[in-house]
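User: Fold both of these, please.

Assistant: Here is the first one.
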Amino acid sequence: MSSEQKTTTFQPPTGIEAFFNRTMGFLAGLGIGPEFIYLLQVRGRKTGKIFSTPVNLMEVGGRQILVAPRGRTQWVRNAEAAGEITLKRGSKRQRFGLRPIADEQKPELLKEYLDRYQSAVKKFFPVAPGSQAEKFREIAGNYAVFELIAKP
């Protein structure tokens, strides 16, 4: 796969998935549901409007990590353009800067993400949950992975 394809590839949600995402985002916004689900808010790179989507926030070694299992989605492109996101859960909001993770550092994080959240995300990975981290090396470029940096 060429690097141009890697930067634009993403899997759009089906109608049912879009409905589920809206529901989970609404619940996370209220502070209801699994503690790892947050409502990500980001300013649109073209419209300037605030867009929201539910995400699974993963803590690894004291670092907060976001993975885009669908690839280079609109939230990823908007977050890269804006340079920051807000995570909301209930009444709590926190702003973060983004530090992109290099492809060579992604395999362990992608493995951890798939192993933790496999029931929701395994269909987006051509690698089976529980696989060795090395199996993720070839596909690492297909997924945006960020470390979050807290902002005041």
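And the second sequence with its predicted structure:
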Amino acid sequence: MRMVDLIEKKKQGGRLNKQEISYWISGVCDKSIPDYQTSALLMAIIFKGMTEEETFDLTDAMLHSGELVDLSDIPGVKVDKHSTGGVGDKVTLVLGPMLAASGLKLAKMSGRGLGHTGGTLDKLESIPGLSTRLSIDDFKKQVRKYGIAVIGQTETLDPADRALYALRDVTGTVDSQALIASSIMSKKLAAGTDCILLDVKFGDGAFMKDIPSAKELATLMVKIGKYFGKNVRAEISSMEEPLGCAVGNILEVKEAIAALHGEGPADLMNICYSSGTTLLLQSGLAKDEKSAQKTLHSVVSSGAAFTKFCEMVGAQGGDVSYLEDPEKFPKAIYQKDIVSTQAGYISNIEAYGIGIDAMKLGAGREKEDDIIDYASGIVLKKKVGDKVAKGEPLATLYTDHPHFERIAKDIYSRFHIGEEPVEVLPVIRDHVE
């Protein structure tokens, strides 16, 4: 078998069989196939696509390229929730403890932020002392004892995906439904949970720009889950504006703490209650939506969810006193209100632009090795649908960089104000089962 033949076959629109895909992925992992040939095949896939069967075979090859996590010896239902990424998405920090306090076991391997999207690991590591680098044994012990652990992907889990994604990122071959679906699902399946809920986002701040493409991706991933005998569902949610109000690591942790006390922004609370309901039904721990909602509201109002968050943070070496007194967190040197020059109603907030602005303030990475300033970021004072008066703050920026005036102007340009009230649409628009 020769790699050039696979490239030619796909270039002509042919279908790669299981053996050919396995040969390719094995060569990616042992480096017997050079990057330039893999890049050529990836580009051919971008233009010619992959069938569902090819996507299943690619997921299978990637899934088995490394270690598989076995969680079967942990009692209870093990669940995972994955988001395709967005601006201000701190759902895991809120939903995870809610699920654990409700009786589920959240065993999650998460990622870091790059570009305009924030990473869950970066948010957690803004808590002093917290480590997201646990061995699989310690990961399982923590899930068994506390019902929740969130760590980074291990070096031995799905190495094919790491190799392929590094190439896709620099060769303009990210935007393929088959490649995105196999990348996400191979990692999720390798992590060994019983139930997986996918939050597939669409809109200005998401990879999928509209509902049809987001639903197409979600449907493909659910089909992959079914093919491998896993209980997988998906929700389609909006990323037309940032989720919640805070964008930036410490700022988002503070907002998550508020949410765990029932005081988070409405859109953040809504998606947490909705996703939590889906997972409780999916896992069989709730018999209907009403009982699921009652359980979730109870663990928040009683403080049980916040206690779970503290247990997780403490188990991973974090200083829990920062959660109990968020004012202890470091504060940015510079803070500036972005003030409206007109009255009206917020008709749109550009999520992608806000994400880029937060990154430029120090809250994210443009390159993988960039150092994050945990205290920097943006807090929205107005959301879509809100009424605003002239001279009223739209947002506040936080940074340690003294030269932020250009970014402040950019942030102002992300807010669009109209004369008439606008309809506020729900965050979650559809479900795929």
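The domain at 3-49 is CATH 1.20.970.10 (Transferase, Pyrimidine Nucleoside Phosphorylase; Chain A, domain 3).
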